[in-house]
Design goal:
The protein is an alpha/beta fold. The chain is 42% helix and 16% strand. Keywords: DNA-binding, Repressor, Transcription, Transcription regulation.
């Protein structure tokens, strides 16, 4: 055994060659043979059984053998013993394939790593069978918990299999009171911030082009618009609220009705709508922001930062939604069941509002 230990540190030794040339994972038995102990002893050292009667010198030999051979413990075996794993699951209906909501994954992954966990991701594209299988797989892996996310903020039914795990809803919520912990964007605060960008520049007659699509964002962003006007002492005028389909064509199509309102500024439900409005205003010979100031919502950088002039907007906090979901799952943040935790939507001011802002 002594010669084995001496040879193990020699680059020409069989142990080192075995590690360099092997085509299979190092086994527990190989570690035991190199350390000159039983596989049971190696297992006790690996699993850090503090009450096991193992001499410090023996623990040291096992530790050195593990390092020399590059042994990796079987994660699934450890999971079966401990009843949990160092994985957090994320099941999403389309987050990974949308242009900006993928930040939810980024935020969740960064926060998970920070606390010693890895993220298992399943993108289901709304397929319920796939969703069921993904959750079942994560349960088999005994994940610490599951984040269940939707690509846009909406109410959702909690899958029955999800209730078998510790879970948090991200960017969605259960309409059933007290049914689930959830983290969502603060749409009303975002709408208020968007309107306040225009109010700070002295605009008093401000239109809002809302969506025709029922959603929490539709109600919340309108509520925020009203809050901002009220805070500035301006009576709410429902005639200044238009509705359009929430895309570029919808914004473009709303141009004529907007111009009839004789407003100096407009806040749009989203950036795509604002992009279409840019085209409509230019076709009418109007300049942004000299003739009319424009604010969007979402901060889709491929749109907002590259319009001319760049669009003032409000960010949806997707990265922070993912990170907050992980913190909530791990018990690091408060997680009330009676209401969703709301994450602030920060304003991003660019040159579509004030001439003095850099283009």
């Amino acid at each position: 055994m002594i010669s084995q230990e001496k040879n193990s540190g020699n680059p020409g030794s069989p142990a080192v060659h075995a590690r360099a040339d092997r085509a299979h994972p190092v086994t527990l038995r190989e570690v035991a043979e190199l350390a000159g102990v039983s596989t049971a002893t190696v297992s006790l050292v690996i699993n850090k059984k503090k009450n096991a009667r193992i001499a410090d010198e023996t623990r040291q030999r096992v530790t050195e053998a593990i390092a020399k051979l590059g042994y990796r413990p079987n994660a699934m075996a450890k999971t079966l013993v401990s009843g949990t794993s160092k994985f957090i699951g994320l099941v999403a209906d389309g987050v990974a394939t949308t242009p900006f909501a993928g930040q939810i994954i980024h935020g969740a992954q960064d926060e998970a790593w920070k606390h010693g966990y890895a993220l298992l991701i399943a993108n289901t594209e709304g397929n319920k069978d796939l969703e069921k299988d993904a959750i079942a797989m994560m349960l088999e892996y005994k994940v610490r918990g599951i984040l269940y996310s939707t690509w846009f903020h909406r109410p959702t039914d909690v899958p029955e299999t999800l209730r078998e795990a510790d879970f948090v809803l991200v960017n969605c919520f259960s309409p059933e009171a007290g049914a689930a912990r959830a983290v969502v964007p603060d749409e009303a605060q975002g709408g208020q911030s968007a309107t306040e960008i225009l109010l700070r520049e002295g605009h008093r007659r401000i239109a809002f082009i809302n969506t025709t699509t029922p959603a929490p964002a539709k109600d919340g962003r309108l509520q925020g618009y009203k809050f901002a006007l009220e805070g500035a002492g301006i009576p709410f005028n429902p005639d200044l609220v238009l509705e359009a389909y929430p895309d570029q064509e919808g914004g473009y199509g709303a141009t004529d009705d907007l111009l009839k309102l004789k407003v100096s500024a407009v806040y749009c439900y989203n950036d795509r709508m604002a992009m279409g409005l840019y085209d409509g205003l230019r076709e009418n010979g109007l300049s942004i922001p000299d003739d009319i100031a424009v604010v969007g919502f979402d901060n889709q950088e491929v749109i907002a930062a590259h319009l001319r002039p760049p669009l003032s907007t409000v960010s949806l906090p997707h990265y922070e939604l993912g990170a907050a979901g992980v913190r909530m799952l791990l018990g690091l943040d408060a997680a009330p069941l009676d209401s969703a935790v709301k994450i602030a939507c920060p304003a991003v001011e660019r040159a579509s509002v004030a001439v003095h802002l850099p283009a």
